[in-house]
Amino acid sequence: MHFLSQPSFFEYCEHIEELHILGHPSCTKGMPKYFLQPQINKKENLQHLTVLSINDAIDPVARMFFFGTLLEVCKLPLRFKTILQPVSNLEKLQHKLHFVKCVQQVDDLENLDLSRASVEVPNPLFRLERATQLRFLSLADNNKLFSDSLRVIAECCPNMISINLNNCHNITTNGDESAVDVSGLQIMLLNLSKLQHINLAGIHFHELISGGSLCEMLSINSTWKSVAFSPCCLKYNKSNTDNETTISGKRLSSQCDNTNIFGKKRRIGIETQPVEVIPLKEATENGKSHPKLLIPSCSDVESFELIGADFRSGFNKYFGMHPKTFHYQACSSYRVRDEDIVCIGQWKNLKYLQLSGLHGILKGHCLINIAKGCVNLQKLYIAYLGLSGHCSYMSSLCAALPHFQKLLDFRLEQPHVKLDQTFFRALGSCQNLERLCILSKNGSFDTEGVTVFIENVKSLIVLQLFTGSTLNSSRALQKALSIKYKTSRPALFITIHPLFHNEMPQMSSNIPAKHLDDITILGSEVCRKPPGWQW
């Protein structure tokens, strides 16, 4: 299909209602380069189009095709119900009158994704005050969103079910970073009574909140299904006159500021707020910020993420997954300890859990409690728990794994991990495991342990090992396993490769896009797509 010289598939598809563009997560692979500007002769075939979306990929050709199609169909009198990522640079599209006219028809809009676009709210282009039917809204990685913006959303979108504010670090201010204003967030949580999914990851909460802690505000809603926030929300600040705590705060900050794990260490030139870790019992008695406050009223939580506000996976740099709005801030309050999150195990309906960038999780005893309590867990993502040196929680992880009997996806990222036979024996207890991804820049694997693990876990379809092992040893094991199971288990896809190697980008282009997007590239999954989204 050469769109520049021949008719496109649009000519043969009458009554199209939904169009989904799926770009490859890696820019080294994607749609052919002649898929640029679609030639649409029979525009009447698209007059019933209500859903137009593109996945969160950096495939440039797929995005050109998406925007080319969008600008063409906007010439029709359409009333969209779903538009996902319709803008990258709003200023360049404001002069397209037909585009502006189309996107202003938001009365029937139910799902809108404006992530990675600096869009102000309220906005004359996207008239959210008229989008009363809006159920899903993603404004992730937006540095123009403030506390007053959340007030507008709270007043205009009463049917909201899911909202993504990931990395919108200005929502606790009104333009002045020195003044904390969380009133917009409070009003939004109170007014949007139908809200079930919220993503507040990447946002620092360091100040005392007049209306209570973030966990207390979230606990007002008893219908949460998905929640994501930063470990800052599990801490509280003491008075600046507490010299002892101030010194402790400085010390913790100096130890744990290195979240840019694969780059140079950052120097902290400012004093951080003093913090104090609250023991589990004390947190409950004193009503301080703690996830246990969410447990009694939110027993139906199915997805939970606790991600360090300045954490980024080392693997993501190959795929441009570092948002421009990334906001580094020296933060000692993210030193969450085992006792702070052990209560997660009380969420019996939890199906997805991500714990990333939590430098205070040393022994990992909380993993055992979570494994015994979260009996329905299907996806577990762990990255950079404890310090970046020796992995001190491996024994607890091995003790926890046999309890995850329903686990389907497991992702582990840690710079120093010894993948020995003990680890793979414990992992082999997860008899329903389908996908495994392990990243360790200085780690090594036991060949015999890997071989026995694959043989025992018949359900496995994806194995990804990115370690510090040599290219020759990695290729040898991958080749041997691929040949062994080529006939008996044709669906098994094995990738074993050194994590930091010149051929890494090329190698990643061979990984099926579904697996690369789901488990290889690590990001926040909560509220990433509309509830029940199949694409």
UniProtKB/TrEMBL annotation:
Entries under InterPro entries matching the protein: FBXL18_LRR (IPR045627), LRR_dom_sf (IPR032675)
Pfam families cross-referenced by the UniProt entry: LRR_FBXL18
Domain F-box/LRR-repeat protein 18 LRR: 100-492
Coiled coil regions in record: none
GO annotation, cellular component aspect: SCF ubiquitin ligase complex
TM region(s), chain numbering: none
Top-rank taxon, per record: Eukaryota
Gene Ontology terms: biological process: SCF-dependent proteasomal ubiquitin-dependent protein catabolic process
Name under which the protein is recorded: F-box/LRR-repeat protein 18 LRR domain-containing protein
